[in-house]
Each structure stands twice: as C-alpha cells, then as structure tokens.
Design goal:
28 strands, globular, mainly beta, 0% helix, four-stranded antiparallel beta sheet, 379 residues
Length: 379
C-alpha cells in the first residue's frame, strides 16, 4: 500500500526505545533509492540507482544547478550533472544557497553561492553550474552546512572547506578556506553530520567527535566557547547513527535511544523543555522501539512504516512545537524522512510527501503556501 495521509495520527506504542524488551538496532540501515536534501530555502532530490537529480525552491545564486537564477516551485531536473549523482546535500545563506554532489567518479562538485569559498573550487565566485571541489578524490560521503561543507574520503582524515570564521572547519584555525583542509584525528570517521557553523563525525569505535562555533552547545561543550578541533561528546558510546540540522545534532545508540543537544529554541531537541543551549546529550522521550534516526535530526522511522517527529513542524496539522518527545506523523508505509523546517517522507513505492515551511517553494507542490499536513510532490 502506498503512503496515504491518515485522518488522525496514531499514538506511539507502549514499548519504547531503550526498554528491556526492545531489541537493539542494527547499524547497517540502507536509505531508499530516492533521497532528499532539504534546508530552509531550497531542496534537491536524487535517485541513487539512476543518478538522476532534481532541485527546486530558491535560486538566488544558482543553487538549483540549472544554469539560471530562476525560482522553481516544482522539481526541475538538474541536467548539468547528467546521471552521475550518488549523493546530494545543500546549505542556505541569506544571500543564496549552495549545493554539492558526490558523483559516480567519487569526486565532489558544488554550485551556487560561493562568497565564503563554500564551493571549494579555490575561488569565491558563485556558480550556476557544478564546479569540482579541488583536491578531493575517492569521496565516500559529503555533508553540507549553511556556511561550509565536509567530505569523508576512502583513506585519510575528513576534509572541510568554506566559512571558518567561527572555527567551523576543525583544523585548529578560525579562517575561511576556498579549498579543503584536513581535519585532524578523523581518520576513523564513518559518518558525518554538519549544521550551522559546526560539524560532527561518528567514529568507528562508536563515539562522536564535534567541532565548530558551539554558540548553543552544539559541539557538546558547555560555556558556548568555540571548539577548534574535533572533541569527544561526553556520555555517548555505542553510537550507530548521527544527524544534524540548524544548531543541533542528534545521535542514536544501539539500544535505540536518541540523544540530542545544542539549540532548542523551538523544541528541536524534543526533551520537554525549551532552552537556548543544551550542551549535554539529552534523551528524546516517548520514542517507540525500533524507530531509526533520520537525516535532519528531528524524525525517526520504524520498519513497519510508522514515522515519528519532534520539534516543529511534525506534519500533524499543527503549527505548535512537539517539544515533549516524538509524535506520530499521519502517514503510512514510510521508509525515510528528510529535512529541516521543510520535511519530506518517501514511501515504500517511491512516492514523495512534503510538509512544513514553503516560503520559497521549497516543498515543490507548485505553491509558496506553508503546509502543516503532508501533500504529495511529483518528480
């Protein structure tokens, strides 16, 4: 059965993550072929099996990669990349966003705004079409924040580039870089998560290292002081997945519990209280057993197709923040949820549903109307 909007959200089951009867999660989750990268003003989608890509929403700096600066209210194919996309990620600046792709040649290419060197091509010239990130090969993962980007390579440390004025890049300096620099002590990184002026890496031993501005405790250090190099987030072990959005990261441990920290202005951490800065990882309450953390750090999905989100918006028709743990999303047969402020759910058959903020047409439904319940989006 395809995903369908339900009349009423279902209550979370009694069995919660971390309880004695809840089996541990596997750490080999594979995302669906259709995947989404969504941020505050534009969105991109790609089919990992075919290499096709689409982007829509704001296009102030050419971030849609279609060779223009024309805003798109519905998905438009990114033809400049051909059928070469293995992964996409995006970021947004007030003056224009940017996008990056990991290609079938295992390189990274970026386009859009470049005022801070975030395209990694050695210049600060914005691009309407993809430009190769210099000095990168054997790329296995990319992660894009609002002002900078990072890549994980087959061998060697993580590389980051772009804005560095808030010590974003983790190289021990607080300087912007127009080409990638190595991040020390990250040779054993197995996953990246990047937000606003901070980055985190999940390590092979099940711990998490973060670095960057830390203005809201997002690097896991109290006091709001900048963290210049990768630093362990205390209290986390047996981590099987991480995600980040805005000023907050989250980590999921093997027993299924999810811990979040950092900025919590709109209940993004789901911990039952709003505080501007929460530097210590705090458990998301009421999380159902078997729900796996999704990209965007505000949702989790079970194998039975049930999705749960916290913060705002959650797709239940309300503009109010769900700050007291996970709430059910009124959809069935969901295999993944992506996004931050604007959210996208992919069904088992590849149908795409969207909800949330839509000021720039980033939901792709042909309008600029905010949607507090899921609407279908066609590619």
């Amino acid at each position: 059965m395809d995903a369908a909007v339900k009349r009423e959200p279902t209550d979370p089951p009694a069995l919660l993550a971390g309880s004695a009867d809840c089996p541990p999660l596997r750490d080999d989750w594979t995302p669906p072929s259709l995947q989404i990268a969504a941020d505050m003003m534009h969105t991109c989608a790609w089919d990992a099996s075919s290499g096709d890509a689409w982007c829509w929403g704001s296009n102030t700096a050419g971030e849609l990669g279609d060779g223009t600066v024309t805003q798109r209210l519905s998905p438009a194919r990114t033809t400049a990349l051909g059928e070469r996309v293995l992964q996409l990620d995006i970021g947004n600046l007030p003056a224009g966003g940017f996008s990056c792709a990991r290609t079938t040649a295992h390189t990274a290419e970026c386009w859009g705004a470049n005022t801070l060197g975030q395209l990694g091509d050695g210049t600060t010239v914005s691009r309407r079409e993809p430009a190769r990130v210099l000095g990168l090969s054997d790329v296995v993962e990319i992660a894009v924040g609002v002002y900078h980007a990072c890549a994980r390579v087959k061998q060697g440390p993580v590389r980051c580039w772009g804005a560095g004025d808030a010590c974003d890049l983790g190289d021990g300096q607080c300087l912007s870089r127009a080409t990638p620099v190595e991040v020390p002590e990250t040779e054993d990184a197995v996953q990246l998560a990047v937000g606003v002026k901070f980055s985190c890496a999940r390590m092979r031993n099940g711990t998490v290292m973060c670095w960057g501005s830390n203005s809201q405790g997002e690097a896991g250090v109290a006091g709001g002081i900048a963290v210049l190099r990768p630093t362990p987030v205390m209290g986390l072990s047996q981590v099987i997945g991480i995600a980040a959005a805005g000023f907050h990261p989250c980590a999921q441990v093997r027993d299924g519990r999810i811990y979040c920290w950092g900025g919590n202005k709109y209940g993004f951490l789901g911990i039952g209280a709003r505080a501007d800065a929460v530097p210590a990882p705090s458990e998301v309450p009421n999380l159902p057993c078997g729900a796996r953390l999704m990209p965007g750090a505000q949702c989790a999905v079970r194998e039975d197709g049930k999705a749960f989100c916290w913060g705002v918006p959650t797709g239940d028709g309300s503009m109010s923040a769900h700050e007291n743990g996970a709430a059910a999303v009124p959809l069935e047969n969901v295999v993944a949820v992506f996004g931050y402020r604007s959210f996208f759910a992919v069904s088992g058959e590849g149908t795409l549903w969207a909800w949330g903020y839509n000021e720039q047409g980033q939901l792709g439904d042909g309008t600029r109307d905010n949607r507090w319940k899921p609407v279908r989006v066609g590619l």
